[in-house]
């Protein structure tokens, strides 16, 4: 019998002041798909993709003005 993959749903986490801290997709308890993190002032801080809870591909870090500061290429995990 095939293993059932949990359906992904939008997930939002908040700073203590109620502003959005992070948002993305969850499949059960695992981060999947595109995620973004924000500073308390609402500017984007970091973004990237997850596959089965692992950071994959290019991750972008933004400066305090929301401009691209650096891009990091995530290495695939060795099996």
Task: Please provide a written account of the structure.
This is MORN repeat variant. This protein is mostly beta strands and 79 residues long. It has one domain. The protein contains no helices and six strands. A six-stranded antiparallel beta sheet has the order 1-2-3-4-5-6, with no helix packed on it. It is flat. It starts with 7 loop residues before the first strand and ends in a 6-residue tail after the last strand. The mean pLDDT is 90.
Provide keyphrases for this structure.
about 80 residues, mainly beta, six-stranded antiparallel β-sheet, 6 strands, MORN repeat variant
Give the helix/strand layout.
Blueprint: E1 8-14, E2 20-27, E3 30-38, E4 44-51, E5 54-62, E6 68-73
Antiparallel strand pairs: 1-2, 2-3, 3-4, 4-5, 5-6
Protein name: MORN repeat variant
Give a short summary of the structure.
With 79 residues, this protein is mainly beta. It is 0% helix and 59% strand. The chain has a 6-stranded antiparallel β-sheet, with no helix packed on it.
Q: SSE order, as H and E?
A: EEEEEE
Helix fraction bin: under 10%
Mean pLDDT: 90
Our estimate of the beta-strand percent is over 45%
Shape: flat
Q: For the report, how would you describe the main beta sheet?
A: 6 strands, antiparallel
Rounded to an integer in angstroms, the radius of gyration calculated over CA atoms is 14 Å
What is the spatial order of strands in the main beta sheet?
A: 1-2-3-4-5-6
The total number of structural domains is 1
Distance between the termini: 25 Å
Number of strands: 6
Number of helices: 0
Residue runs with pLDDT of under 50 for 5 or more positions: none
Q: What structural category do the secondary elements indicate?
A: mainly beta
């Amino acid at each position: 019998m095939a293993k059932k993959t949990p359906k992904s749903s939008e997930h939002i986490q908040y700073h203590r002041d109620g502003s959005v801290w992070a948002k993305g997709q969850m499949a059960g308890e695992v981060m999947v798909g595109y995620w973004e993190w924000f500073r308390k002032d609402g500017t984007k801080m970091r973004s990237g993709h997850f596959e089965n809870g692992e950071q994959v591909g290019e991750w972008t870090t933004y400066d305090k003005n929301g401009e691209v500061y650096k891009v990091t290429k995530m290495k695939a995990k060795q099996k």
